[in-house]
Amino acid sequence: MGRLILSRLGVMILTAVCLTFAVFFLTNLQPSLEKLAKTQVNTRMTDEQVALWLANNGYARSTLVRYGEWLGVVPGWTGAGENGKPTGRCVKADVPAGETPRFCGVLQGDFGFSTVFHEAVGPIVGKRLALTGWLMLWVMVAMVPMALLVGVLAGMREGSRLDRGLSVFSIASTATPEYVSGVVLIAVFASSAVGLQWFKASAASAMDDMTVENFTLPVLTMALYGMGYIARMTRAAMAEVMTSQYIRTAHLKGLSFGAVVVRHALRNALIAPFTVIMLQFPWLLTGVVIVEALFNYKGFGWTLVRAADNNDIDLLLACSMVAVVVVLVTQLISDIGYMVLNPRVRVG
User: Is 338 part of a structural domain of the chain?
Assistant: First the structure.
């Protein structure tokens, strides 16, 4: 187990470096840098003025050097600003000139400066990620138990009316995109035209005070979309387990149907859904883009859209890095959990 974890950690680090470099390269192409310069200064800048601004702000160097600077393994660039004052990536207004560090990248906890929000990227990502974390938590609390219940009930008696009804519901929920189900839920439960004004159509107030009224619809929108896939996987695993030889043996021993399901079938049937459930975390982190935009909830997805729309390179890189880390960590946890749940798996 220990060797597996160490090897996976090595693969995770290598994967994270490759993916973050790919994102860094794509976000630092020349058209993007020119757009950044014109956004920060003047949209009518000439090509010479753009080139001068990029050179004065450290964007004219090679991509590898700037990527190493962003990581924190290459010293940060320095230059002379207005009135001869030193400027550079590591130069901070609240840090004396003699105490300016040479390295100031991700490894040092410095994610750069947001050109949209005009503040350090780290606190922005932390605050928005915490808001999305609360949304993800309540989505998982609502989605996972209901999906497992639907899947187990459908798989217990394969081919029955209950199985067919629950399967239709699972397929319909998965086939309906979030922006469709979200609009339908708003129209039914939050619109004055229908009359059922039970909830609020906007979740903006939930950022300060989460209540049932302002937080139910975004949670329900995401839970409905994700639970269908988990339920279908659980149903398939449960149906396969119920036809196994050891289940037949348990029936021949005189155990009741409920005892067979709880004691023998349920544990093995939950192995495959566990992996699917863990993969829902990366989907929730990036899939909230549509839901947060629809309900005006200013979390991680909303921030990612703002960074991409406004070519905020440092903020976009930080959001991408967080998404990569979440994907890799959840896959590692999924592999470890699979081995714990399935003793037949052995590490070579």
Answer: no
